[in-house]
């Protein structure tokens, strides 16, 4: 297993975990105060001696040096020598040896910096305090705020490689014995995927994030990593069906049992915590498809008193509408396929939380696989740059349409946390800043009437996802529960007339007109 597959975080001045190797005449045993304006070479196996022009030409295709960035507010007491001149800055990072000025050569526009650390004069970012919004962080975190790839391209290069080489066996031994930091094998990490992880960590306020191949990959690896054999978990009645199947069908094979409670039933949670040695409380908030909300702060307080961890799947909320970690949760999971990717063109999942917990999950992930492809990582980076714009539009459209639907005579019931009629409306107002782009509602009619409504819609696609630019609609009874009988579906609250509508970023008036005309057909 590779050590430290993501670079040090950029938004805190002190970081746990192994320290990168620093070149220069520095006492390696001295306390680590954070290094201002340093880019640390990561890994030590990308050795380039390129002219400035050549480096620029190559950077966009990922043939750039791989580095880890560690920043702090002040380097006055760090004991680190001043950064070299701009001429040296343009040079490539190379061998892992102390800085020796005699080995710093320059000639014309070709400059070779033959040392372990490339020092580059970067602005003092004061922990990104100049960025006041999540929207700006979604654009710049992991990139303008410090990127693990030396490049002057605006966009992050896609590093397509399955493995990373070591120049000599001594370097490999240093890495294995944790005296050096590097990538090793593609399944353990990639500099392109690290940028995604840094962006999500910035939005969630997390110490660490790991990106995986899908949302279900994230959920299942997390459950297997954190719940011991014979352990017990608590989850909720309303949840994504595949998650429920895993909890009810696969976890028992490891002797893991579960208590399933209503999202609002705190008495049932307290009983489960008193009767069982609960390892983990795992749920969505809002839930799928009824958009129920869990009191994350209260749940976290109750669980922590009994030594249980709390994980919230915040996919329906997005990191912009809800900060589960700030409310007390230990971990937050997202299907990045949905809002985070946002373009219906990529599968991914992510887990954010403390470095300790995420590292524990990452260890199992490295064994099981499920690594995200770097091209998919690039699509997520691209998608996140418009996350705040998309979510603002989707929040607004869903909120306005939920009121119109609730007032319509052909709609029996609407499920949306932003409506006063929602059972957790007041809770949602306390712990969310927006209510999301999905509205579930029941048509006043049977299965066939609902099918007629869905088929009359012209804008949304009939498909099993949500959160993208394009609007999507489905009947859960057919899309997710068609293998069950009607009576079995009812046990999960899934009626034949239930519709889940994911609003995209189309014009509100167009969507409104389309829904109203479809309602007129029934």
TrEMBL record:
GO terms for cellular component: chloroplast. The keyword Protein transport does not apply. Keywords: Amino-acid biosynthesis, Methionine biosynthesis, Pyridoxal phosphate. Pfam families: Cys_Met_Meta_PP. It comes from the Eukaryota. GO terms for molecular function: cystathionine gamma-synthase activity; pyridoxal phosphate binding. This is plant cystathionine gamma-synthase. Belongs to the trans-sulfuration enzymes family. The lineage of its organism: Eukaryota, Viridiplantae, Streptophyta, Embryophyta, Tracheophyta. Gene3D superfamilies: Aspartate Aminotransferase, domain 1, Type I PLP-dependent aspartate aminotransferase-like (Major domain). It catalyses: O-phospho-L-homoserine + L-cysteine = L,L-cystathionine + phosphate; O-succinyl-L-homoserine + L-cysteine = L,L-cystathionine + succinate + H(+). GO terms for biological process: methionine biosynthetic process; transsulfuration. It is an enzyme of class 2 (transferase).
